[in-house]
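Reader question, answered in our methods column.
A reader sent in the components of a multi-part assembly and asked whether the whole thing could be modeled at once rather than chain by chain. We filled in our standard form and ran it. Here is what they sent:
COMPLEX SIZE: two components
ENTRIES:
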Amino acid sequence: MFWPAYFILAYLAVGIQLGVAPVLRVGGASPNFVLMCVVFIAVNAPREAALLGCFALGAMQDLVTQDTLGLYALSYGLFALMAGGSGQAVYRGHPLTHFALTLGGGLLLAIVLLVHSWLPYKDAVHLSVGTMLWSAVYSAIWAPFIIWPLHRMNRSFGFHPARRRSRV
Amino acid sequence: MRSLRFNHIFTALLVLAGLCAFALPVRVTDFVHVRVGILFWPVAKPSGAIASWAHGKLSPQHPFDDGAADPMNPRSADQLITENQELRVQIANMSGRLAQLERVDHELAAVGDVRDLCERFSVIGGGADVAQREGLLITGKTFDGVKAGQPVLFTGVNGAGVAGIIERAQIGGAVVRLITDDRFSVRAGFARFVPNPNGTLEFVTIATHQVLARGDGRGAMWIHNLEWNLVNEVGLRPDDWVIVTDPDWSKQLQRYRVGKITSIEQWSKGPGYAEIKVEPPQNLLLLRDVLVMTKGS
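And here is the structure of the entire assembly that came back:
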């Protein structure tokens, strides 16, 4: 993976999450643009790069949320473990793939956030199941519109470096 | 072999993240939870401004005028200028009376324009939480005198109000917990503008006991501990103001606006009690700058 391109994408994703997501809030939930980038990386990047890239995206998002440090990094890391390297089994460019994987990632994130909010020894805001599920669905609805253009640019990310030709 | 090493490192990272999230106390993780929101300012600010502009074009904010017979039809500029002049006279009169009272009671010396105690800071973004949490990242840093617990106010086309409190302040910026954040609570009372026979407006508090307003994480607050009989007795109605009457908040903010009532119904889950929805005068997540009360709080 071409890491400078990855960092530019991550920077833009977190910046847009901060700036634009509150305006698009519906029913207490915002679209999670960072998760969409996680899906894009998880599907396209080689397994190790995908795991590291998704975890780092989560860590970056953790730094700008109100929640405890580590929640997003853990969620995206777990998601990458499940979805990383699945690129060969799914049709990477299909909007349904983007929808389904973002929904899956959103549900995993919802579970982690809900469990954290329900722990009695954590002084966390108690989140509601309905809103967290809606958040996952809402992000999934947005996903094809964000991931598809990214998919068109995937050469810039150097996910599949050209093989060297050697003369025999 | 390389893959094995990578798997170990990645597992260690996941375990560390899990420990931070679920096991370590918040004060420990906060130590490393340096707010780096300001680093994202170059993207967050312009993208947020464009999104807000587009949002304003698609659903323009309608000015709300408490003093008009129909609040949705604001008065003309001439009427507002007249009222402004009258209010200036009233303020001058009250300032004089306060000056007298200050001599009697030193505590009253703190009373004044709250905005003089505040510093204005830009909003970087609305926080990157995906649901329910309502907060803002602002440029105010510890170097600027911003500290956790300080009240945050706002001004806008529909008037001023309380936006929230500083939840965390660090060298890279601060996080504001909005009043509409899930479970945010403040003790409150009610007030409204009542026209006087001489045509001026008087701001009167409505005689109810103190109530608790709680945020719902969806842009509103709810009050559930006011008896339905009392609501009818005092004639509480939509568009009445909800104001701070919380002794834990600074003296200068008492009777400061939290929001206005947008609906009152009998609470289906609590017989005999009312369910009152309170909304701030504007969407707090779309604020572009805020006032942090860095002095006197």
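What stands out: Helices of chain B lie at 2-23, 26-32, 41-58, 77-104, 228-234. The radius of gyration of chain B is 22 Å.
Send us your own complexes using the same form.
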